[in-house]
Amino acid sequence: MRIGAVDKYFGATQVLQNCTLDVGDGEIVTLLGPSGCGKTTLLRCIAGFWDADAGRIEIDGQDMTPVPVNRRPVGVVFQSYALFPHLTVARNVGYALRMRGTPASEIEARVTEALRTVSLEGFESRYPAQLSGGQQQRVAIARVLVMQPRVLLLDEPFNALDAKLRSTMQVELRQLIKQLGITSIFVTHDQEEALTMSDRIAVMRGGRIEQAATPDEIFDRPVSSYVADFVGTSNFWDAQAEAGQVTLPDGQSVETGLSGKVRVMSRPHNLRLAPEEQGPWRGVVLFQRHIGPLIEYHVEMPDGATIKVAAIRQDRVRPVRDRAAVSIGIIDSAQVSVFAD
User: Residue 37: which domain range?
Assistant: First the structure.
């Protein structure tokens, strides 16, 4: 599948700008970004709900521009699931096939197979109100799978689920999609969800794709401070690049091809705390945030900025108390990013 230089306007407002993205067969690509960045608009252009004003959307090498929405080889799982409350699970799943005039025997076989695929055998006669949120989502997915789409589009499908179920369903859905080998486009504003679900992530900003790369590349090698700030927790500070080097606050240096004023970023897990006398980068611990196996320390610097440092619980030699004076050290200077913006 290929999205080639797609533009979209609503009146005089441009909401998509030169969006280009290649999606491999069986690949899961997530469109990630804040509300209003254009990710749902791009998804709707792929589905055919809206027409792009410029560019091409190709599936299996065929331009989808002249293909109406009901003839495109795509299936859409909506945020709300959009199940018919008065129809059973089986009739919900087989609804689109009936509308197409598919023979009853084929509908029954394909519905049975779709429900088996999403582990809902035995639920055929239940109604949506008799299902949990996770089961309703599986029905919505089965209703798409029964149509045997070439491309699966998912528009924030986990929003209606509680946090624990949401985490479980992310893993289950990724495993199901990979098992079936369906090319998939996933839309979310949740960075953790994107990192869990995706083979690649396309981070969007103001209608443009800022970076498209693997989750590891997005997290470890962001191309801009925007991507670094949006995906994961980041610490930023201003610095000066001279002779291809940037001096870091703890005295180390990092190479860069930039010169002049730059913005430097380090992830919290690439920092360590030590007693104050052991380094030049010093501050005071404001408080500690416990995140499962991690502790995130918020350290106030003399200029009023806050630096976040993450430590694994069992790695702590001794507790660091609130209001303790500490120094911060960078573990691996090669993992520090330097941006022009």
Answer: 2-227
Same domain for 135 and 30, yes or no, is yes
Q: Decide if 327 contacts 282 (C-beta within 8 A).
A: yes
Domain boundary among 196, 227, 258: 227
Considering the entire predicted model, what is its pTM? 0.91
Number of domains forming the structure of the chain: 2
Task: With cut-offs at 50, 70 and 90, classify the pLDDT of residue 318.
Answer: low
Mean of pLDDT values over 330-336: 96
* Residue 311: closest CA among 263, 258, 272, 256: 272
Q: What are the tens digits of pLDDT across the range 252-276?
A: 999 999 999 999 999 999 999 988 8
What is the C-alpha end-to-end distance of the chain, expressed in Å? 33
**Structure token pair of residue 333:** 């200077």
**What is the CA angle 17-24-76, rounded to 5?**
70
Q: Quote the tokens at residue 321.
A: 């108390």
Q: Are residues 125 and 97 in the same domain?
A: yes
- 171: how many CB neighbours lie within 10 A of its CB? 11
Positive or negative CA dihedral for 280, 281, 286, 289? negative
